[in-house]
Design goal:
The protein has 250 residues and is α/β, with parallel strands linked by helices. The protein is 34% helix and 18% strand.
């Protein structure tokens, strides 16, 4: 990927991930909100035949448009995948534009897992419908998330049944509210994090690696010493290698 394209990608990603909600009140439960709708951007498979979906989940306050450069960069490496870039299912409640998977208003270590669980259930239901529409098995999905989208991708790695073919978490963390159950999953997971990340510190991916492995996941952890909260060409190369090593050749 050329330098100017990488720079544009970093700007697009960071635009939605550095905002802090101004007010602390707890939002109403998502179950009380209208049923979320999904705006979707897609790239058809380069091979002309869809054998799996590669679904990308953006960060808080961003949108599907901000993730299209990642989809375009990775598409040649997975020619049988339809790339699906999903908009956050809820409007961002910390600003005037953008989308979110779950609210950050009044969020704490105690209530985060429940919010992630609600968002994960919504996205999993959407995935079921998208796979059925294309005549694909429920396991024929790869998830790639950044920041808040990565938190969601990690939750789905543990809780979606059947498990995804693979999960990629970029600058994320694990939100769980139950002890590890060994052998509960065997999904391959790539955790990528910048050592200079000021938004979600890299230690959260290190902690996630231990927790995911305790549950049976096959984890590959990569820390980039000069990277902050973003994605660059080296990260995309790492993702391509992981997908090449992990996805079945069928």
């Amino acid at each position: 990927m050329r330098a100017h394209a990488v720079a544009a990608l970093l700007v697009a990603l960071l635009a939605g991930c550095s905002r802090t909600p101004a007010s602390p009140p707890e939002p109403p439960a998502m179950t009380d909100a209208p049923k979320p709708t999904a705006r979707v951007l897609t790239l058809p498979p380069a091979s002309g035949r869809t054998k799996l979906l590669l679904v990308l989940l953006h960060g808080v306050g961003a949108s599907a448009d901000s993730f299209m450069p990642i989809a375009r960069a990775l598409a040649p490496a997975v020619p049988d995948a339809e790339f699906v870039v999903l908009d956050g299912l809820h409007p961002f409640d910390g600003g005037t534009q953008g989308r979110q998977w779950f609210s950050l208003q009044g969020i704490t270590e105690q209530n985060r897992p429940a919010r992630v669980r609600q968002a994960g259930a919504e996205v999993s239901a959407w995935l079921d419908g998208a796979l059925k529409e294309r005549g694909l098995g429920a396991e024929r999905v790869v998830l790639l998330g950044f920041s808040q989208g990565a938190i969601l991708a990690q939750w789905l790695a543990l809780h979606r049944q059947p498990a995804p073919l693979a999960v990629v978490s970029l600058s994320g963390r694990l939100a769980v509210d139950a002890p590890a159950v060994p052998g509960s999953t065997s999904v391959p997971v790539l955790l990528v994090h910048g050592a200079r990340d000021p938004v979600i510190p890299a230690r959260f991916s290190e902690e996630a690696a231990r927790e995911l492995e305790a549950r049976g996941a096959r984890v590959r952890l990569r820390l980039f010493p000069t990277l902050a909260h973003g994605v660059d060409a080296a990260v995309l190369d790492e993702v391509q290698r992981f997908l090449a090593d992990t996805l079945p050749a069928d």
